[in-house]
Predict the 3D structure of the following.
Amino acid sequence: MSEADNQLSHVKQLAIVGVGLMGGSIGTGLRLAGFSGKIIGVGRRRESLDIAMRHRCVDGVTTNLGDAVRDSDMVIVAVNLGVFAQTFQCIAEHDHDGLIITDVGSTKMQVVADARRHLPDVSRFVGAHPMAGSEHSGPSSARPDLFANKTCIITPEADTDDDAAQTVAALWRSLQMRVIFMSPKEHDEKSAAISHLPHAAAAMLVHIANRIGGLEIASTGFRDTTRLASSNPPMRADIMTANRDALLHALDVLEQQINTLRGALSANEQDKLMQWLEQAKRTRDDWADSV
Amino acid sequence: MSEADNQLSHVKQLAIVGVGLMGGSIGTGLRLAGFSGKIIGVGRRRESLDIAMRHRCVDGVTTNLGDAVRDSDMVIVAVNLGVFAQTFQCIAEHDHDGLIITDVGSTKMQVVADARRHLPDVSRFVGAHPMAGSEHSGPSSARPDLFANKTCIITPEADTDDDAAQTVAALWRSLQMRVIFMSPKEHDEKSAAISHLPHAAAAMLVHIANRIGGLEIASTGFRDTTRLASSNPPMRADIMTANRDALLHALDVLEQQINTLRGALSANEQDKLMQWLEQAKRTRDDWADSV
């Protein structure tokens, strides 16, 4: 028995709230990993729950979050960011001693703030962000290997129960994830830089090409650079709004970069332009080689 | 015999100046397409010429551009943008009646201006930009199908000889390219929007991630969005400098986009943010479906 299995063995029942791509993949992934507890899928739409059952993502389903919470040792919140607050409110009503609560939200400061506002004992809440996804959504796209060899960020705080944090880490490790701990603030700032700003930039590039023209001659470079612009708009809007401050800061840094490039071009500083391009290439190549 | 073959049949010898990825692929591609003339590779480095011969990109090689020009019916300039002017100067010294001159440069206004400045009869110069490439370079990466099913933009002007333009179009069509005609100015403005700005944005995103931090948690979205930052810096610097005005304009439009997003975020205008994201997704999905 591995250390992860050992730490998860006291979880006799796990409730996954929201059985979309993420929730469904957690269920089917845990089953494949040999998780011994019962897995209950919680959702509002009967149709999604039926699909989750058919795809063997969960052992049982319910539309009653309260029932599921009361009988579970652990709850994973895998709903859209926009309904986290009301989900925490409902969990709070049926919270019980020993219940561990975690989530899969793409931003962490607002999620942690919502947890603090609504949960009676926030020490048993451990924020998590498994950095995995797909352009597809819904439980029919769930895959047991969605998380394998990817990174999960866990954001415990000073008052977080250590056992709860270790149990949540064990859960993600059992899905073959590399677990990294950082503060919610660090998570959100870094996510703005490497995910939320790239999503925004992809949308900007599409708008610009549409305005100036040229889509009829656009090719693979444009396709790759703008792929993120095809992401789900409501989900992206929720994430951008939830991480507003960090994204606004990243936009300021983007403007500084524009000014750097504009300066080098306007003044015909070929050396400076080369240095700027070479530094970006070196940083990106080193990063790509390391992952 | 196809129309393209017919229009190329009077080209008894073709000189390709610069036998890198592009020049080499033109040679090996024309051979596969049944081009009947002799193909001469012209270069400054003996080593590249030897590789081009070994890879059967060309029938013969020389380091003497003058000799090659004198004996050819058509010259394709496939060197770096930075050495176009001196290449045109040398071609001018050995120019002769009926010689057709074309190129593969990624920007067109500066190339056409250089041609006007240096060539004795610019009516026989036809600017071209085959929109194909690879992250690899050099004649050892040459592929006969590099251009297949891609777009080639040809930029004749009012005083361009029509036969010359049609012969150049026939050349690219024989390599299975879709040929589009536009003015050098239109080419450069559209290229700034769909290629040069995306290259710049990719470099900016790498610099920003390096500054704010987060590379250790960056994933596939970051990888795709920044792929162009790994391009060859001297080549990109030459292109950005050659297309300075159009790129500066595109940077202005990028700043407008930043202000649009910043405004929607700061004022918490969720509807406006959603609309902005949805419009980008629709434009990009429609484009991706159409190519």
